[in-house]
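To assess whether the prediction recovers the assembly geometry, we first specified each molecular entity separately, as shown.
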Amino acid sequence: MPGATRPEQRPIAPHLQVWRWHVTMANSILHRASGVALYGAALLFALWLMAVAAGAEAYAPVGAFLISPLGQIGLYLTVAALAFHFANGIRHLVFDLGRGLTPADADASAWFAILFAAAAPAGLWALVTFGA
Amino acid sequence: METRSRTRAAGHGAGHFIAQRATAIALMLLAPWFVISAAFLMREGGYIAAIDFLTDPLNAVGVILLLAAALYHMMLGMQEIILDYIHKSSTKMALLLLNTFVPLALGAGALFALLAVNFGV
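The predicted structure of the complete assembly is given in tokenized form:
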């Protein structure tokens, strides 16, 4: 076509490699990731109830695992995933009401959810270990 | 028209949306309650502490509600993830079935376990 711009002179469209990291994007990904992790945790919780019902002897190794370092790390990370999903879930419920959707608000609440996920398990661990 | 009928929404979107939010609101109370109680009352990981916790009637009812809300909520969430990322229809169907059967089976087992702990089946 006469007068058409040659392909190499056209502006380049945004592409998969061209994006800016953003905290709201991280939260979106983390919400799904923590949800999937909690899915596994809930299934293990159901198995834990069955282990309790199976009697003291059957439960002994389960209880021992839960207070072992590996079990404690697992529980700590589960609480962190839950804290994140909890805070970010509330954020989404607020979004559903049509509030908190300006970029500044959405960024602030996104950071809050991340900070809460970091602080909540640490706070609970400290309370259980050193508190009452 | 053939393609259209295959890609059309099932018409359950509003129900899914509302159920996901309703269970989310229930879990806003139930999940922190369980985590905090469990962390304090069962911190030693012992069998007796677990039995003591689960045989308190309020705790037992709370755990039943927690299980119901959590399993329903996570099935809805996982369904969304499967529909978003899995495009091969046989795989998608298999995963959707698993996403229904596994939580329901473990939920039924957990509920029975809780009744057994309380009523000595």
